[in-house]
Design a protein that fits this description.
The chain has about 200 residues and is an alpha/beta fold. It has a single domain, classed as Methylglyoxal synthase-like domain (Rossmann fold, 3-Layer(aba) Sandwich), CATH 3.40.50.1380. The protein is about 55% helix and about 10% strand. It has 10 helices and 5 strands, in the order βαβαβαααβαααβαα. Strands 3-2-1-4-5 form a 5-stranded parallel β-sheet, sandwiched between helices. Helix 1 packs parallel to helix 9 and helix 4 packs parallel to helix 8. The longest helix is centred in the last third of the chain and has 25 residues. The radius of gyration is 16 Å and the shape is globular. The termini are far apart. The relative contact order is 0.17. The model has no long low-confidence stretch (mean pLDDT about 95).
């Protein structure tokens, strides 16, 4: 992983559990971070008076198939995956209008809680997150350049560093990437165990 701190310029937020979200988004906005979001998260942020860009404006595609397809797009994954210190990646991003995403905050659809509630098969299936784990894993793979947050505590840790130093430090970036892989592995294990 790169050893350089990451300055936050753009954050993509897509959360099921919105606890603490508005305060965290306000703190990001106060740092000059552009907020990009999906569906219900975007609605909540806008209702709180925050400036938010819908992910569909980033991708040029609307959310579709009852929200099953929102973020599975090169404008999102390219923004998460491109190596900021690789001239070829930087050129590809520029050539295709792909902007860097420096922070991602995704807490996954509540599959485990849905199963535990005794929900029917179809409801459980609809609570299997696809785009969320894909974005988290992409961001973690590029964790030297992206602060990847799977819960509000992660966001608070990132904000504390960014507010104090103006950037997120490499040690925290690496810790967050490792935590992300543990979270997505546990999520997939819960799904495979349920099937």
């Amino acid at each position: 992983m790169s050893g350089a701190p990451v300055t936050l310029r753009r954050a993509l937020i897509s959360v099921s559990d919105k606890t603490g979200l508005i305060d965290q988004a306000r703190r990001l906005a106060a740092l000059g971070v552009e907020l990009v979001s999906t569906g219900g998260t975007s609605k909540a942020l806008k209702e709180a008076g925050l400036a938010v860009k819908d992910v569909s404006d980033l991708t040029g595609f609307p959310e579709m198939m009852d929200g099953r397809v929102k973020t599975l797009h090169p404008a999102v994954h390219g923004g998460l995956l491109y190596l900021r210190d690789n001239p070829s990646h930087v050129k590809d991003a520029a050539d295709h209008g792909i902007g860097a995403i420096d922070l991602i905050y995704v807490n996954l659809y509540p599959f485990e809680a849905t199963v535990a509630s005794g929900a029917d098969f179809e409801t459980c299936i609809e609570n299997i997150d696809i785009g969320g784990p894909a974005m988290l894993r992409a961001a973690a793979k590029n964790g030297a350049f992206v602060a990847v947050c799977t819960d509000g505590g992660d966001v608070d840790a990132v904000l504390a560093q960014a507010e104090e130093t103006g950037a997120v430090q490499p040690a925290l970036l690496r810790k967050l990437a490792a935590k992300t892989y543990a979270r997505t592995a546990a999520y997939d294990a819960a799904i495979s165990g349920w099937y």
